[in-house]
Specification:
Layout (H helix, E strand, L loop, with lengths): L2 E5 L4 H12 L3 E6 L13 E4 L5 H11 L3 E4 L6 H6 L1 H21 L4 E7 L22 H20 L2 E7 L1 E3 L17 H9 L6 E4 L11 E2 L1 E3 H16 L5 E5 L5 E2 H12 L5 E4 L14 H7 L8 H14 L7
Helix pairs in contact: 1-7, 2-4, 4-5, 6-8, 6-10, 8-10
Length: 329
């Protein structure tokens, strides 16, 4: 496989992945409407402005570029917003994604790597979370990811479309160059919020819940570096090229870090003792969420390179310090 179409390639994880693909010698076409992505994140890459809501747009792109495979990032990701505006999430994450796979089938493109999410599991009954554990999403975002995974299974059975779904836990960090990083319109990620507080762009950062049954009373989550996610996409493409069957993998570091631990790490790396405010719990926040990535390690040969919270925060800080206002608009 030489030619890869990347939907949503101008976004956070997409832009890191296209760099990794380029290093591996792939020819890349990014298909993006730039609704949440950034042109500055993909300087030097081929971008086709288009929207997956238009079957004509994506069908024309596939016909012209003739990709060997697709990496599908494009979608809406804000879990909270998915509960207040579910229509946008069903449209973007399900119907628009259907346009993509239908155009792939029409043009005989039979391999796709899908950007899924740990949100498909909902509140787990046990940790670490494994791929065959119960899937009961607690928000519409997670449900739309699960629906599309099911669509991919049926398209494999009916049309021979092979897929690998990658279920991310908390994507974080930035390319060590400091040239690209997280610049979301809605700033909800803990590490991003901590570093923006350190930069003085926020007065304080809140901890929601300090009475959980954890070592310091705050929630524990699994943070995974964005470049390690990018590496996993390349390994998934190679697995599909080698004839692997449709499947899914968890991607996390397999280690949980508490909210307070992450904030203390951010203070240490930035050298700034920013203000932290303790607040009551938020409804629906599980105490502990972390992944077992054994399957990805054993079957794909994937191994995180940025496996400490210090490395993750350090690379993110380099990006935010160098680009305090994100990408120039």
């Amino acid at each position: 496989m030489k030619k890869i179409l990347v939907t949503g390639g101008a976004g956070y994880i997409g832009s890191h992945t296209v760099r990794a693909l380029e290093k591996e010698g792939y020819e890349i076409l990014i298909f993006d409407n730039l609704s949440s992505g950034h042109k500055d994140a993909i300087k030097g890459f081929n971008l086709l402005l288009g929207d997956l809501s238009s079957y004509e747009d994506i069908n024309k792109a596939i016909k012209k570029f003739k990709p060997d495979a697709v990496v599908h990032f494009a979608g809406s990701i804000e879990a909270g917003e998915s509960m207040t505006d579910p229509a946008r999430f069903y449209q973007n994450n399900v119907i628009n994604s259907l346009n993509l796979v239908n155009a792939m089938v029409e043009n005989n493109v039979k391999k796709i790597v899908f950007s899924s999410s740990a949100a498909i599991y909902g509140e787990p009954k046990k940790t670490p979370i494994r791929e065959n554990d119960t899937k009961k999403p607690t928000n519409v975002y997670g449900l739309t990811k699960l629906i599309f995974e099911e669509i991919l299974h049926s398209y494999n059975y009916a049309y021979g479309l092979k897929s690998i779904s990658l279920r991310y836990f908390n994507a974080a960090g930035a390319d060590p160059s400091g040239d690209i990083g997280a610049d979301h319109k809605n700033k909800t990620h803990l590490i991003t919020l901590a570093l923006l507080t350190a930069l003085g762009q926020r007065d304080s950062i809140k901890i929601f819940g300090t009475d959980y049954n954890t070592k310091d009373g705050t929630c524990i989550r699994d943070y995974i570096h964005v470049n390690d996610l990018a590496d996993a996409h390349i390994l998934a493409l190679k697995a599909l090229e080698d004839g692997d069957n449709t499947t899914a993998y968890n991607l996390g570091n397999g280690i949980g870090h508490s909210v307070r631990e992450v904030l203390e790490t951010a203070k240490k790396i930035t050298g700034i003792d920013f203000k932290v405010v303790d607040e009551p719990r938020r409804e629906g926040d599980p105490a502990i969420l972390y992944a077992s990535s054994d399957k990805a390690m054993n079957e794909l040969g994937w191994k995180p390179k940025f496996d400490s919270i210090e490395q993750i925060v350090e690379t993110a800080w380099k990006w935010h310090k160098k680009n305090p206002n994100g990408f120039e608009k």
